[in-house]
Predict the 3D structure of the following.
Amino acid sequence: MDSKMIYAIVAAAIIVVAGVAIFFALGNNSNSNSYEPAAYDDSDVRLRIYGNANGDDVIDDKDVKTIQKIIDDGISDWKTGYYFADANHDGRITSADIDVVNKFIKKESTKMWYENSFSTKDSYADGVNKRIDSYVNYPIGHKVGCEYLTVQFLCVLGVYDYFKATDATMANNYGDETYPGISSIPSMGQRNALDLQSLEQMYKDGKLDTVIMWSGGTSTMYLWDDAVKSGVADHLSFVMLTCQGKDCVNGVLMLAAMFGDQSLSDKYVKWYDSGMKKLNDISFYYYDENGAFVETKASPYFALDNGALYSADFKTLYAYMCA
């Protein structure tokens, strides 16, 4: 047989074998690479940002696939199992939500809607619990003003150098030994009484582009309302996340996502989850009213003297700073 013919046959065989290999590697096993999102209870979600469609701790391509599945399958009751899929916060699930999530992933400018820490509180006179959502200008900037103890967020994320302003109370109560440079940092005004006009002026002066508000501030929601009505919220970002009490870990995850660098929260979340697991593994034993010896697990909550019930992460930000 002609040598050229032999080479041609061998080459063809190689191509066929390679093609079969590619088919089995990519085509035949395509199901193993597919992503099937599972519905979730939105009360269990820690990263409470619209666009976190699958409800886990990170915004990534899985959220794009989740939104696409909702669209493809025509899931009309998506709020029940995929509450945070509405990335652009317009009450519908469309390809526009995918566009927003892709902007999050690529760190491109857009609005990032989130459920702020007042979302399940009686924030208005009618006394009705309601979700209250806000937005930031994603990614938020690095000239951050922290009202009261919210500066702990920056410490935990390892971005203390973003700390550019605080309230007068914070500067008076804590010294440079605890928060370096705080004695000379610009003041945003009195705690719980921040003034929108003053904050806007600091923005115009190039001193501020993000404000993390103290969740215990009585004027917080009204300041946000005014910021939206005046248009200030479209260039000065307002972050309302609790840094003490329940769900501090939510705030850490969300703030890292707002900065556009979700890896900032990795160390704290790993430390937090490990600590909570150890707590939940602790057993207590006691005799019940029938004299039976009973084992029970440690509660993830504890009560203060005033009867208020707090989760075990009440001061985990400060504890992490001191660890």
